[in-house]
Here is the input.
Amino acid sequence: MLAFGLASVQFFPFLFDKWTEIYVDLPKVESDSLIFVFPQPPINEYKPLIIPKEMIINDRNMSLYNIGGTFSSYPHRLPEYKRTQKDSIKGRNFIWKHWTEKKRAYIISKWLDEGVSCDSHIFIEPDEKGKWHIIDKTLCNFRAAKPQFTETEIHFIKFKKADELDYEFKSNTLYLALFENEGDEREVKKL
Here is the structure.
């Protein structure tokens, strides 16, 4: 009886393996190279939003603006941060210089993070009354959410030192904080 009991211990795992196997018909590949298979990212049910440049620029005479080009910014926890850090500093300094000297300027800030990419079109210019402001037109495309387009009017900017709440930046680094009005507590944008 003991022998039958020991044999069943060996026998039942075999049956379990046979009954639970799933056969998959994989394509045959004849190659000496390694083959890597990567899972597909989640399919975005929303298509990226593309805004024509004419809608961004509107009726502005761009020959009156100093063009700063494009600078990219990555949060400090991503590997690309070091590569874009100098680029970000140049972009911030371009904005600061034109803001303080009251010169018309246009620059694009690209911000990338996991699952989101944003392009901010930043215009430094006087409004119809001659008061200087920044118009920030931002288009964000998300991996799993509807794209967003926002337009913000900014009247005050300053450099701030990052603390532990400014997760995008390393602590004690300077970033450019944009506010809708002087005296506001909440930053509209951080560059």
Observations:
- The radius of gyration is 27 Å.
- Strands lie at 66-73, 105-113, 116-126, 132-142, 148-154, 156-161, 174-179, 189-190.
- Residues 68-190 form one domain.
